Amino acid sequence: MASPTSPFLAQVSASPSVEVPVAAPADAEAFSNPVAFVESAAAALPDGAASTSAPISIVLLLTLLTIAPSILILCTSFTRFVVVLGLLRQALGTQGLPPSQVIVGLSLFLTFVSMAPTLSAMWDEGLEPYLDAPIDQRDSMAAWEGMKRPLRAFMIDQIARAGNDSTVVMMVEFQGWDYESQGEPEWEDVDLVALVPAFVLSELKTAFLIAFRIFLPFLVIDMIVSSLLISMGMMMLPPVFISLPFKLLLFVVADGWMLVAGSLLQSVAGGGP
Questions:
Q1: Does residue 193 come out as left (phi exceeding 0), alpha (psi in the -120 to 50 range) or beta?
Q2: Whole-angstrom distance, CA of residue 264 vs CA of residue 106
Q3: pLDDT 10s digits, 46-60
Q4: Which residues span the domain enclosing 246?
């Protein structure tokens, strides 16, 4: 017995077929070109026709919000700043002061200051020409190359000036570089997959060198206070109770926060610890 057909199903069956846009499969170029990947994702959105750039702008914004933390931590000087400031807090012996939110926030804004020329070049050479061009004339590969070039130059400059080329050599060797057939690797032969971890290792080494120099005066104060307490027979009194006021006094009198922040910015501008 035939089942009764609902009016809604009859209306749907009688309506003309609607074509749903289907995103093209991501190929190797999409994975090596994030801008092209954003374009393909935007094409899958409803009303993602070439007559408007709103879908591309939305997907581009969501993509940037997703990958921004990784880019901020791995491809900028944020790692150097947050490590040095964190170790400075340990050197002072103030435990939870300043709070971690203050250290991360200060590191974030110091990163924006130090990376301002690079970010401006990435906008001028890559993203701005791409967004200003007509939709049918946009070149995603040119936009990605324009954005990648200043960032690569910044990371290479920091690695070279700090003398940490060995990190790049290690990454290239683990990628299977053949010295017999390919010769010595040049900077043009290093892709982002090898350059980013090499840059992070270089930043960590530089940050620990800077933190070691900051630690030394506070270590001297701790040793002097400990020796005085032992000589006076006050071995049960924790030295940190006595040394902390002296370390804070020394740090404030020397205007330590300005010195540390200025030294960090100068280390990025000069490319070394």
A1: alpha
A2: 12
A3: 554 444 456 666 766
A4: 83-270
Residue with the two structure tokens 């922040």? 261
3-class SS string, the chain: CCCCCCHHHHHHHHCCCCCCCCCCCCCHHHHHCHHHHHHHHHHCCCCCCCCCCHHHHHHHHHHHHHHHHHHHHHCCCHHHHHHHHHHHHHHHCCCCCCCHHHHHHHHHHHHHHHCHHHHHHHHHHHHHHHHHCCHHHCCHHHHHHHHHHHHHHHHHHHHHHHCCHHHHHHHHHHCCCCHHHHCCCCHHHCCHHHHHHHHHHHHHHHHHHHHHHHHHHHHHHHHHHHHHHHHCCCCCCCHHHHHHHHHHHHHHHCCHHHHHHHHHHHHHHHCCC
Determine, yes or no, domain membership for 8.
Answer: no
The verdict on residue 230 lying in a domain is yes
Give which of 133, 131, 135, 139 is closest to 51, Cα–Cα: 135
Q: Which of 267, 247, 132 is nearest to 205 (CA)?
A: 267
Q: pLDDT tens digits for 177-224?
A: 777 777 777 788 788 888 888 999 999 999 999 999 988 888 888 888
Q: What is the pLDDT of residue 36?
A: 63
Burial bucket for residue 159 (CB in 10 Å: 0-12, 13-18, 19+): buried
- Give the number of domains in the chain: 1
- In a domain, residue 90? The reply is yes
Question: Tokens 């990454």, residue?
Answer: 171
- Residue 257 included in any domain: yes
Q: How many other β-carbons are positioned within 10 Å of the β-carbon of residue 203?
A: 26
Instruction: Flag whether the pTM goes above 0.85.
Output: no
